[in-house]
Amino acid sequence: MTRFDIAVIGGGPAGAATAIRAARAGAKVLVVEKGEHGRDKVCGDGLTPRAVAALNELAIPLDDAHRIAGLRMIAGKQVRELPWAREGGRFPTHGAVWPRRRLDAALIDAAAAAGAEVRFGATALPVIDGDGRATGIKVGNDAITADLTVLAAGAPGEAARVLGAERDPREPYGLAIRTYVDSPRHADAHIEACLTVRDERGTWIPGYGWMFPCGDGTVNLGVGALSTMKGFKDLNLNRLLDSYRTLVRDTWGIGPDLERARAWRLPMSAVKRHGPGWVAIGDAAGLINPMNGEGIDYGLESGIVAADRFLADPATAPATYDAEIGERFDGFLRTGRRFAFLIGHPRLMRTGLRFAVGTDRVAAITLQVMGNLVDADTPGAAGHTLRAADRLLALADPALRATRARA
Ligand SMILES: Cc1cc2nc3c(=O)[nH]c(=O)nc-3n(C[C@H](O)[C@H](O)[C@H](O)COP(=O)(O)OP(=O)(O)OC[C@H]3O[C@@H](n4cnc5c(N)ncnc54)[C@H](O)[C@@H]3O)c2cc1C
User: Fold this and answer.
1) Which secondary structure element, helix H or strand E, spans residue 18, and what is its range?
2) What is the pLDDT of residues 79-100, one digit of tens each?
3) Which of 86, 219, 237, 338 is deepest in the core (most CB within 10 A)?
């Protein structure tokens, strides 16, 4: 039996952030990762200014990432190029694209350099005692005790089931697919999102197609959709990707796919994110923004919060972690989930889109709100818009859910 202060299940951005933060402060940390070192994660590889801020907080150099100045939003014939964020705000004014194979390796290497023990190629499951308390993890025949068990295993699987931390079946979730292609525009300064993608039946997708330039000769090309759309169960992501690829082939001068397109889930809720002796962070806690599908920033931030709460007081860490995450994200993510039901109605989505990208000023506010670059107490147009949207969506929510299209 081996003893650690913190045992982390999963070595993605969230788990690595906890390990970096806690190990640097002297805690004895173990991270168990199912994949091998340098494993890939199906992702768009886009880092928001919020994610860049979290990487800065962890002192992770971004030299290996491709710097991004803003977003090109496309809706039908409308094209708007917008800077990521305002000067003088809480977040940096740039984002980045950093292929996950390299980003995740940089993070887990930083955790190891800080003194965390990292075991690759091993699967861990939480261990619960007779009182329902997580006492550590089991890795094969190895029993490991820990004062705090951190579930950082991404989209819910066996480890989440043991803790009862699965996705809330009443809430929306996302599915997305991506590949990489060569393109002469691989070093563009803007990421691109096309908000008017349709499936093979012509149904508007609540989601978007993306071209995220990696700066290394390649572009991450993908498309994602929310479960609130009509016919979601029958949605063929490969065909959706084919039709989006056709749309961008000429403007991006893309070559054939460099690897087989792969899809993965985007959980946007969790029935529980803490309990005696454990916390869930990142995707395992359902911390993905339903308005744009990004979760790396929340993974990093929640990983940092989990470590900080543990370092402050191990006994109260699960409860204080849950409270801090609730304060920081719950309101916004609830608004985002309501928004997901709204755009699941194609007519409402079309009307909303026309307004949202109608002028540069409104589109800039849309970007700030959707990128979660405003806080509840942010003054100015974006802050007002978020609060107004929150109130309106709260009123409309029961009707939107009741009239939800059949999946
Ligand atoms: C197609 C797609 C595109 C996306 N694009 C973006 C984007 O551009 N920007 C953005 O911010 N977000 C994006 N996201 C979301 C983003 O990928 C996630 O929010 C992010 O990876 C969450 O990090 P995490 O550490 O919580 O989980 P993960 O990155 O999923 O890491 C979890 C790790 O746990 C390991 N694991 C699982 N179970 C066990 C176990 N029992 N034992 C040991 N190890 C285990 C897994 O192997 C994995 O390495 C996208 C998601 C998808 C599907």
Assistant:
1) helix 13-24
2) 999 998 777 778 999 999 999 9
3) 219
- Tens of pLDDT, residue by residue over 248-282, are 999 999 999 999 999 999 999 999 999 999 999 99
CA of 22 to the centre of ligand 1 (A): 21
Nearest CA to ligand 1 atom 10: 294
Determine the distance separating the centroid of ligand 1 and the alpha carbon of 52, expressed in angstroms: 17
Q: Considering Cα of 310, then 311, then 316, then 321, what sign does the dihedral take?
A: negative
**Ligand 1 site-directed mutation target among 266, 278, 279, 372, most atoms within 8 Å of CB:** 266
DSSP codes of every residue in 190-202: EEEEES--B-TT-
Q: Are strands 66-68 and 95-97 parallel, antiparallel or unpaired?
A: antiparallel
Give residue ranges with CB within 6 A of ligand 1: 9-15, 32-35, 39, 41-46, 51, 123-124, 152-154, 157, 159, 176, 178, 222, 224, 264, 266, 282-284, 288, 293-297, 299
Residue partners of 339: CB distance under 8 A and separation at least 6: 290, 291, 389, 393
Choice between 309 and 390, residue whose per-residue pLDDT is larger:
309
Per-residue pLDDT tens digits for 11-69: 999 999 999 999 999 999 999 999 999 999 999 999 999 999 999 999 999 999 999 99
Which stretches does DSSP call E strand in 133-275? 134-139, 142-151, 174-182, 190-194, 207-213, 218-226, 262-266, 274-275
List residues bridging with 7 in a β-sheet. Answer: 30, 149
pLDDT tens, residue by residue, 196-229: 998 888 888 899 999 999 999 999 999 999 999 8
> For residue 80, which amino acid is it?
R
The tens digit of pLDDT for each residue in 136-166 reads 999 999 999 999 999 999 999 999 999 999 9
0.85 cut: is pTM over it?
yes
Instruction: Quickly state the pLDDT bin for 1 (edges 50, 70, 90).
Output: low
| Interval between CA 154 and ligand 1 midpoint (Å) | 5
Q: Residue whose CA is closest, atom 21 of ligand 1? A: 296
- Whether 233 and 407 have beta carbons less than 8 Å apart is answered as yes
Strands across the sheet containing 46-47:
46-47, 95-97, 66-68
First and final CA of the chain: distance in angstroms?
Answer: 48
